[in-house]
Write a structure and sequence with these properties.
By secondary structure, this protein is mainly α. It contains two helices and no strands.
Length: 109
């Protein structure tokens, strides 16, 4: 019976030691999270938070990038049209030099 009591006390102390160890580790994690969360920027606002003004600026930037994309598409489209026109004019000039260009029909009266 005495042996059983001693074993029970030993197991209890072992479990108590493990519990204390877990509490110490948990306390360290909580302290570290507090340190990280408590960091502040130059303006005194915790860096953990995002200011509304920053959200607004990011939204404005995204809108500007969308508009820029549309402008680039327009420039590419215009450039393609200009390229096609130049190629047609060069082709016409080449045919004129070779004498293979058909004369334009006379307007009907």
């Amino acid at each position: 019976m005495l042996l059983l009591a001693q074993i029970s006390i030993g197991v209890g102390l072992l479990l108590l030691g493990a519990l204390v160890g877990m509490l110490v580790r948990t306390s360290r994690v909580v302290d570290r999270l507090w340190e990280i969360h408590n960091v502040r920027g130059r303006d005194g606002v915790p860096v953990w938070y995002v200011r509304e003004s920053l959200e607004d600026q990011i939204g404005n930037l995204a809108h500007s990038i969308d508009k820029l994309g549309g402008a680039v598409e327009h420039v590419c489209s215009t450039s393609q049209g200009t390229q096609n026109l130049v190629l047609r004019l060069l082709d016409r000039e080449e045919r004129d030099r070779a004498g293979t260009r058909k004369p334009a029909p006379e307007p009907a009266t």
